[in-house]
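Researcher: Checking consistency across runs. Here is BTG1 protein again:
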Amino acid sequence: VSTAVAFVTRLLRAAGGVGEEQLRCFRECLQEAMREHYKHHWFPLVPSKGSGYRCIRINHKMDPLIGKAAGMIGLSHERLFQLLPSELTLWVDPFEVSYRIGEDGSICVLYESPQPGGKAAKQLESRTSCKEEWRIGRSSPSKSYNMMTVSS
């Protein structure tokens, strides 16, 4: 949860126009809202169970958890749509947090931990391609097309 909250907070910080005190309050409010929302929908023994319920989504509608936290610091839904990607999916599961910007974007892992009994958790901040995707504000990755010519 803290990785997902930190990610959304970094998106707001990168967009500019939101003060550090507001960002701190937003981070605390969003973390509390997510913990409360996920309380009965967190299954470490079956991590994929409830994943749809835990999905944070912005797609022409603001996710209610983000909207609630933003409202606590005086940000309207309209302002949030200006500051955050217009299409964002954030999956918050036990042992993994990942996101996608745009409907055709790559899925990027922010946090990954082996299930119980494995090594310590790690943040996956070094994935430059995914990190840069949201920094430069691209809604989806560029597509490359290979041309094939046929001669008769």
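Researcher: Does this match what you'd expect to see?
Model: One thing to look at in this run: Confidence is low (pLDDT under 50) at residues 124-129, 131-152.
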